[in-house]
Amino acid sequence: MSLVAIESMASLSSTDVFYDILRRLDGPTLAAAACSCATFCSISREERLWENVCSSTWPSTNREDVKSLISSIGGFRKFYADCFPLIVCKEVTEYQWNGHLEYPEEWTESEYYGDNMGLESISPLDFVSIVDIRYKDKTICTKVLWGIPNANGSNTWFHNCPFRIDLLNYAARDDDCEGEVTLSVSDGLPPVTSMEKERKDGKLWKELQDSLCLSWIVVNRKLKQAANLASWSPLGGQRHWPTDKDFVIRFGSVLPAKDILPCQVVECILNMKFRVEGDGVGTALKLTELSMQLEDMEGAHVNGRNSLLILKEALSCRRSKNYREVVESWHLYSKVQSELKEEKMRNESRLDRLCILSGIAAFVTFWYYIL
Protein backbone atom coordinates (compact mmCIF):
# COMPACT_ATOMS: atom_id res chain seq x y z
CA MET A 1 0.00 0.00 0.00
CA SER A 2 1.39 3.42 -0.97
CA LEU A 3 2.26 6.08 1.59
CA VAL A 4 -0.29 8.47 0.03
CA ALA A 5 -3.10 5.93 0.49
CA ILE A 6 -2.09 5.34 4.12
CA GLU A 7 -2.07 9.07 4.85
CA SER A 8 -5.47 9.46 3.14
CA MET A 9 -6.97 6.72 5.31
CA ALA A 10 -5.46 8.21 8.43
CA SER A 11 -7.08 11.55 7.69
CA LEU A 12 -10.54 9.98 7.66
CA SER A 13 -12.45 10.18 10.91
CA SER A 14 -14.60 7.34 12.19
CA THR A 15 -17.66 9.47 11.41
CA ASP A 16 -16.63 9.72 7.76
CA VAL A 17 -16.16 5.96 7.57
CA PHE A 18 -19.51 5.29 9.20
CA TYR A 19 -21.21 7.79 6.87
CA ASP A 20 -19.68 6.07 3.85
CA ILE A 21 -21.03 2.75 5.12
CA LEU A 22 -24.53 4.05 5.86
CA ARG A 23 -24.93 5.81 2.52
CA ARG A 24 -24.71 2.44 0.77
CA LEU A 25 -27.69 0.99 2.65
CA ASP A 26 -31.31 0.83 1.55
CA GLY A 27 -34.08 2.43 3.60
CA PRO A 28 -35.10 -0.45 5.91
CA THR A 29 -31.47 -1.38 6.59
CA LEU A 30 -30.55 2.23 7.29
CA ALA A 31 -33.47 2.55 9.72
CA ALA A 32 -32.38 -0.65 11.48
CA ALA A 33 -28.77 0.52 11.67
CA ALA A 34 -29.92 3.79 13.27
CA CYS A 35 -31.31 1.77 16.17
CA SER A 36 -28.07 -0.15 16.78
CA CYS A 37 -25.98 2.55 18.48
CA ALA A 38 -25.90 6.24 19.33
CA THR A 39 -23.29 7.03 16.67
CA PHE A 40 -25.29 5.47 13.84
CA CYS A 41 -28.44 7.12 15.19
CA SER A 42 -26.79 10.54 15.05
CA ILE A 43 -25.34 10.04 11.56
CA SER A 44 -28.60 8.62 10.20
CA ARG A 45 -30.33 11.94 10.84
CA GLU A 46 -28.35 13.39 7.93
CA GLU A 47 -30.85 14.40 5.26
CA ARG A 48 -28.46 13.56 2.44
CA LEU A 49 -28.60 9.88 3.39
CA TRP A 50 -32.37 9.81 3.15
CA GLU A 51 -32.32 11.81 -0.06
CA ASN A 52 -30.20 9.05 -1.60
CA VAL A 53 -32.59 6.41 -0.27
CA CYS A 54 -35.64 8.22 -1.67
CA SER A 55 -33.88 8.74 -4.99
CA SER A 56 -33.24 5.01 -5.37
CA THR A 57 -36.73 4.06 -4.20
CA TRP A 58 -38.64 6.72 -6.13
CA PRO A 59 -36.66 8.12 -9.12
CA SER A 60 -39.21 10.92 -9.48
CA THR A 61 -37.78 12.50 -6.32
CA ASN A 62 -34.64 13.39 -8.32
CA ARG A 63 -36.52 16.30 -9.87
CA GLU A 64 -35.68 19.71 -8.45
CA ASP A 65 -39.33 20.72 -8.00
CA VAL A 66 -40.06 17.48 -6.13
CA LYS A 67 -36.97 17.96 -3.95
CA SER A 68 -38.24 21.42 -3.02
CA LEU A 69 -41.68 19.98 -2.28
CA ILE A 70 -40.24 17.29 0.00
CA SER A 71 -38.08 19.82 1.83
CA SER A 72 -41.12 22.02 2.42
CA ILE A 73 -43.15 19.21 4.05
CA GLY A 74 -40.47 18.08 6.51
CA GLY A 75 -37.55 16.61 4.57
CA PHE A 76 -36.56 13.30 3.00
CA ARG A 77 -36.37 11.36 6.24
CA LYS A 78 -39.99 12.18 7.09
CA PHE A 79 -41.05 11.60 3.48
CA TYR A 80 -39.58 8.09 3.51
CA ALA A 81 -41.14 7.30 6.89
CA ASP A 82 -44.55 8.42 5.56
CA CYS A 83 -44.45 6.80 2.12
CA PHE A 84 -42.48 3.56 2.39
CA PRO A 85 -45.00 1.83 4.71
CA LEU A 86 -48.29 1.07 2.98
CA ILE A 87 -51.78 1.96 4.17
CA VAL A 88 -53.55 -0.72 6.21
CA CYS A 89 -57.25 -0.33 7.02
CA LYS A 90 -58.57 -2.49 9.86
CA GLU A 91 -62.01 -0.91 9.80
CA VAL A 92 -63.40 -3.28 7.16
CA THR A 93 -64.89 -5.60 9.75
CA GLU A 94 -66.78 -2.67 11.28
CA TYR A 95 -68.87 -2.30 8.16
CA GLN A 96 -72.29 -3.88 8.47
CA TRP A 97 -74.51 -3.64 5.43
CA ASN A 98 -78.16 -2.84 6.03
CA GLY A 99 -80.12 -4.24 3.12
CA HIS A 100 -83.36 -2.35 3.77
CA LEU A 101 -81.85 1.07 4.53
CA GLU A 102 -79.64 2.47 1.79
CA TYR A 103 -79.14 5.77 3.60
CA PRO A 104 -79.14 5.61 7.41
CA GLU A 105 -81.10 8.30 9.19
CA GLU A 106 -78.00 10.33 10.02
CA TRP A 107 -77.05 10.48 6.32
CA THR A 108 -79.20 12.59 4.03
CA GLU A 109 -78.83 12.42 0.26
CA SER A 110 -77.57 16.01 0.14
CA GLU A 111 -74.86 15.14 2.67
CA TYR A 112 -73.88 12.10 0.62
CA TYR A 113 -73.67 13.90 -2.71
CA GLY A 114 -73.65 17.67 -2.82
CA ASP A 115 -72.88 19.40 0.46
CA ASN A 116 -69.55 21.27 0.63
CA MET A 117 -69.32 20.98 4.40
CA GLY A 118 -65.77 20.18 5.46
CA LEU A 119 -64.24 21.24 2.17
CA GLU A 120 -63.30 24.76 3.21
CA SER A 121 -59.84 23.64 4.35
CA ILE A 122 -59.24 21.30 1.38
CA SER A 123 -58.12 22.60 -1.98
CA PRO A 124 -57.57 20.26 -4.97
CA LEU A 125 -54.57 22.42 -5.84
CA ASP A 126 -52.83 21.32 -2.60
CA PHE A 127 -52.58 17.69 -3.77
CA VAL A 128 -49.58 16.43 -5.71
CA SER A 129 -49.30 12.96 -7.27
CA ILE A 130 -45.81 11.44 -7.51
CA VAL A 131 -45.89 8.26 -9.59
CA ASP A 132 -43.18 5.70 -10.40
CA ILE A 133 -43.51 2.50 -12.44
CA ARG A 134 -40.87 -0.20 -12.37
CA TYR A 135 -40.49 -3.35 -14.41
CA LYS A 136 -37.94 -5.86 -13.07
CA ASP A 137 -36.31 -3.12 -10.96
CA LYS A 138 -35.96 -0.89 -14.02
CA THR A 139 -37.83 2.43 -13.96
CA ILE A 140 -40.00 2.73 -17.07
CA CYS A 141 -42.03 5.81 -16.16
CA THR A 142 -42.09 8.65 -13.63
CA LYS A 143 -44.78 11.31 -13.53
CA VAL A 144 -45.66 14.20 -11.27
CA LEU A 145 -49.10 15.82 -11.37
CA TRP A 146 -49.59 19.11 -9.53
CA GLY A 147 -53.15 19.51 -8.32
CA ILE A 148 -56.23 17.53 -9.32
CA PRO A 149 -57.42 18.19 -12.90
CA ASN A 150 -60.84 19.76 -13.54
CA ALA A 151 -61.22 20.76 -9.89
CA ASN A 152 -60.44 24.46 -9.93
CA GLY A 153 -62.12 26.53 -7.23
CA SER A 154 -65.57 25.50 -6.05
CA ASN A 155 -66.28 23.38 -9.13
CA THR A 156 -69.77 21.93 -8.59
CA TRP A 157 -69.33 19.55 -11.52
CA PHE A 158 -66.19 18.04 -9.97
CA HIS A 159 -67.76 17.76 -6.50
CA ASN A 160 -70.82 15.84 -7.74
CA CYS A 161 -69.33 13.66 -10.51
CA PRO A 162 -67.33 10.44 -10.07
CA PHE A 163 -63.74 11.11 -9.06
CA ARG A 164 -61.11 9.91 -11.51
CA ILE A 165 -57.56 10.89 -12.46
CA ASP A 166 -56.29 9.74 -15.88
CA LEU A 167 -52.63 10.46 -15.43
CA LEU A 168 -51.58 9.91 -19.04
CA ASN A 169 -54.05 12.54 -20.23
CA TYR A 170 -52.32 15.32 -18.34
CA ALA A 171 -48.81 16.46 -19.17
CA ALA A 172 -46.72 17.10 -16.07
CA ARG A 173 -43.75 19.42 -16.08
CA ASP A 174 -40.42 17.88 -17.13
CA ASP A 175 -41.70 14.30 -17.14
CA ASP A 176 -38.99 11.71 -17.57
CA CYS A 177 -41.28 9.54 -19.70
CA GLU A 178 -42.49 12.04 -22.26
CA GLY A 179 -44.22 10.31 -25.14
CA GLU A 180 -45.21 6.65 -25.16
CA VAL A 181 -44.25 4.18 -22.44
CA THR A 182 -43.44 0.77 -23.93
CA LEU A 183 -41.94 -2.56 -22.90
CA SER A 184 -40.29 -4.94 -25.37
CA VAL A 185 -38.64 -8.36 -25.51
CA SER A 186 -35.30 -6.63 -24.91
CA ASP A 187 -36.67 -5.51 -21.52
CA GLY A 188 -37.36 -9.12 -20.56
CA LEU A 189 -40.89 -9.62 -21.92
CA PRO A 190 -41.66 -13.16 -23.11
CA PRO A 191 -42.39 -13.14 -26.86
CA VAL A 192 -46.04 -13.65 -27.83
CA THR A 193 -46.40 -15.73 -30.99
CA SER A 194 -50.20 -15.53 -30.94
CA MET A 195 -52.89 -14.23 -28.64
CA GLU A 196 -54.60 -17.62 -28.74
CA LYS A 197 -51.49 -19.26 -27.26
CA GLU A 198 -51.17 -16.47 -24.66
CA ARG A 199 -54.79 -17.04 -23.66
CA LYS A 200 -53.93 -20.68 -22.93
CA ASP A 201 -50.55 -20.48 -21.21
CA GLY A 202 -50.72 -16.90 -19.83
CA LYS A 203 -46.93 -16.42 -19.80
CA LEU A 204 -47.11 -12.69 -20.54
CA TRP A 205 -49.86 -12.17 -17.97
CA LYS A 206 -47.87 -13.98 -15.27
CA GLU A 207 -44.76 -11.97 -16.16
CA LEU A 208 -46.65 -8.69 -15.72
CA GLN A 209 -48.12 -9.84 -12.40
CA ASP A 210 -44.68 -10.82 -11.08
CA SER A 211 -42.51 -7.99 -12.42
CA LEU A 212 -44.55 -4.76 -12.41
CA CYS A 213 -44.32 -2.40 -9.46
CA LEU A 214 -46.28 0.83 -8.94
CA SER A 215 -45.90 3.62 -6.42
CA TRP A 216 -48.51 6.41 -6.36
CA ILE A 217 -47.70 8.91 -3.63
CA VAL A 218 -50.17 11.66 -2.79
CA VAL A 219 -48.85 14.76 -1.03
CA ASN A 220 -50.87 17.55 0.52
CA ARG A 221 -48.69 20.67 0.51
CA LYS A 222 -50.90 22.58 2.95
CA LEU A 223 -51.11 19.81 5.57
CA LYS A 224 -47.47 18.76 4.93
CA GLN A 225 -48.52 15.11 4.78
CA ALA A 226 -47.86 12.31 2.29
CA ALA A 227 -48.89 8.67 1.79
CA ASN A 228 -48.44 5.92 -0.78
CA LEU A 229 -51.85 4.81 -2.08
CA ALA A 230 -50.46 1.97 -4.21
CA SER A 231 -49.77 -1.60 -3.15
CA TRP A 232 -46.33 -1.86 -4.80
CA SER A 233 -47.25 -5.24 -6.34
CA PRO A 234 -50.46 -5.98 -8.29
CA LEU A 235 -53.55 -7.02 -6.34
CA GLY A 236 -55.34 -8.41 -9.38
CA GLY A 237 -56.39 -7.50 -12.87
CA GLN A 238 -58.09 -8.69 -16.01
CA ARG A 239 -56.46 -10.03 -19.13
CA HIS A 240 -57.83 -9.83 -22.66
CA TRP A 241 -60.21 -7.02 -21.71
CA PRO A 242 -61.86 -5.01 -23.22
CA THR A 243 -60.14 -6.38 -26.34
CA ASP A 244 -58.09 -9.51 -26.84
CA LYS A 245 -54.83 -7.52 -26.77
CA ASP A 246 -55.49 -5.48 -23.62
CA PHE A 247 -54.23 -6.30 -20.12
CA VAL A 248 -55.49 -4.41 -17.06
CA ILE A 249 -53.29 -4.60 -13.94
CA ARG A 250 -54.89 -3.43 -10.70
CA PHE A 251 -53.06 -1.91 -7.74
CA GLY A 252 -54.53 0.04 -4.85
CA SER A 253 -55.41 0.15 -1.18
CA VAL A 254 -58.34 0.16 1.23
CA LEU A 255 -58.98 3.61 2.71
CA PRO A 256 -61.04 4.61 5.75
CA ALA A 257 -64.12 6.72 5.09
CA LYS A 258 -65.53 6.96 8.61
CA ASP A 259 -67.97 9.87 9.03
CA ILE A 260 -67.62 10.53 5.28
CA LEU A 261 -69.62 7.66 3.71
CA PRO A 262 -72.14 5.22 5.22
CA CYS A 263 -69.99 2.24 4.17
CA GLN A 264 -67.08 3.51 6.35
CA VAL A 265 -64.39 2.14 3.96
CA VAL A 266 -63.63 2.50 0.24
CA GLU A 267 -61.22 0.99 -2.24
CA CYS A 268 -58.66 3.15 -4.01
CA ILE A 269 -58.27 1.53 -7.44
CA LEU A 270 -55.15 2.23 -9.47
CA ASN A 271 -55.45 0.74 -12.94
CA MET A 272 -52.57 0.23 -15.35
CA LYS A 273 -53.58 -0.89 -18.85
CA PHE A 274 -51.21 -2.26 -21.49
CA ARG A 275 -51.89 -3.14 -25.13
CA VAL A 276 -49.95 -5.80 -27.02
CA GLU A 277 -48.36 -4.65 -30.28
CA GLY A 278 -46.45 -6.91 -32.68
CA ASP A 279 -45.66 -10.59 -32.16
CA GLY A 280 -42.70 -12.93 -31.70
CA VAL A 281 -39.42 -11.13 -31.05
CA GLY A 282 -41.20 -7.91 -32.01
CA THR A 283 -43.67 -8.20 -29.13
CA ALA A 284 -44.14 -4.88 -27.33
CA LEU A 285 -46.48 -3.55 -24.66
CA LYS A 286 -47.74 0.02 -24.79
CA LEU A 287 -49.05 1.71 -21.64
CA THR A 288 -52.46 3.11 -22.58
CA GLU A 289 -53.96 3.96 -19.17
CA LEU A 290 -52.80 4.90 -15.69
CA SER A 291 -55.70 6.00 -13.54
CA MET A 292 -57.01 6.43 -10.00
CA GLN A 293 -60.59 6.18 -8.80
CA LEU A 294 -62.40 5.43 -5.55
CA GLU A 295 -65.24 2.92 -5.17
CA ASP A 296 -67.47 2.20 -2.20
CA MET A 297 -68.53 -1.23 -0.91
CA GLU A 298 -71.35 -1.48 -3.44
CA GLY A 299 -69.03 -0.75 -6.36
CA ALA A 300 -70.30 2.80 -6.90
CA HIS A 301 -67.79 5.48 -7.85
CA VAL A 302 -67.17 8.04 -5.11
CA ASN A 303 -67.77 11.65 -6.16
CA GLY A 304 -65.16 14.41 -6.14
CA ARG A 305 -66.34 16.02 -2.89
CA ASN A 306 -66.12 12.85 -0.80
CA SER A 307 -62.92 11.76 -2.55
CA LEU A 308 -61.13 14.89 -1.36
CA LEU A 309 -62.23 14.22 2.21
CA ILE A 310 -61.14 10.56 1.99
CA LEU A 311 -57.74 11.46 0.52
CA LYS A 312 -57.21 13.95 3.32
CA GLU A 313 -57.97 11.30 5.95
CA ALA A 314 -55.80 8.71 4.18
CA LEU A 315 -52.71 10.86 4.67
CA SER A 316 -52.89 10.35 8.44
CA CYS A 317 -54.19 6.78 8.75
CA ARG A 318 -52.37 3.65 9.94
CA ARG A 319 -49.57 2.12 7.83
CA SER A 320 -47.43 -0.99 7.89
CA LYS A 321 -44.15 -2.23 6.40
CA ASN A 322 -45.57 -5.76 6.46
CA TYR A 323 -46.82 -6.35 2.90
CA ARG A 324 -48.70 -9.47 3.99
CA GLU A 325 -50.78 -7.34 6.34
CA VAL A 326 -51.62 -5.00 3.46
CA VAL A 327 -52.74 -7.90 1.24
CA GLU A 328 -54.81 -9.41 4.07
CA SER A 329 -56.59 -6.08 4.50
CA TRP A 330 -57.45 -6.02 0.79
CA HIS A 331 -58.61 -9.66 0.80
CA LEU A 332 -60.81 -8.95 3.82
CA TYR A 333 -62.36 -6.00 1.96
CA SER A 334 -62.97 -8.19 -1.10
CA LYS A 335 -64.56 -10.89 1.05
CA VAL A 336 -66.93 -8.46 2.77
CA GLN A 337 -67.75 -6.89 -0.60
CA SER A 338 -68.56 -10.31 -2.09
CA GLU A 339 -70.80 -11.15 0.87
CA LEU A 340 -72.57 -7.83 0.39
CA LYS A 341 -73.24 -8.59 -3.28
CA GLU A 342 -74.50 -12.07 -2.44
CA GLU A 343 -76.81 -10.65 0.23
CA LYS A 344 -78.19 -8.10 -2.22
CA MET A 345 -78.78 -10.83 -4.80
CA ARG A 346 -80.59 -12.95 -2.21
CA ASN A 347 -82.78 -10.02 -1.19
CA GLU A 348 -83.57 -9.23 -4.82
CA SER A 349 -84.39 -12.90 -5.41
CA ARG A 350 -86.73 -12.90 -2.41
CA LEU A 351 -88.40 -9.74 -3.68
CA ASP A 352 -88.85 -11.26 -7.14
CA ARG A 353 -90.46 -14.37 -5.68
CA LEU A 354 -92.72 -12.22 -3.49
CA CYS A 355 -93.83 -10.21 -6.51
CA ILE A 356 -94.54 -13.39 -8.48
CA LEU A 357 -96.53 -14.91 -5.62
CA SER A 358 -98.44 -11.66 -5.15
CA GLY A 359 -99.27 -11.61 -8.85
CA ILE A 360 -100.46 -15.21 -8.77
CA ALA A 361 -102.54 -14.54 -5.66
CA ALA A 362 -104.11 -11.48 -7.26
CA PHE A 363 -104.83 -13.44 -10.45
CA VAL A 364 -106.46 -16.33 -8.55
CA THR A 365 -108.47 -13.93 -6.37
CA PHE A 366 -109.70 -12.05 -9.43
CA TRP A 367 -110.94 -15.19 -11.20
CA TYR A 368 -112.38 -16.56 -7.95
CA TYR A 369 -114.76 -13.58 -7.70
CA ILE A 370 -115.45 -13.56 -11.43
CA LEU A 371 -116.44 -17.20 -11.50
TrEMBL record:
Domain of life (superkingdom): Eukaryota
Signal peptide region: none
SUPFAM superfamilies, per database record: F-box domain (SSF81383)
Gene3D superfamilies: 1.20.1280.50
Record-linked InterPro entries: AT3G44326-like, F-box-like_dom_sf
Protein name, as recorded: F-box protein
Annotated organism of origin: Hibiscus sabdariffa
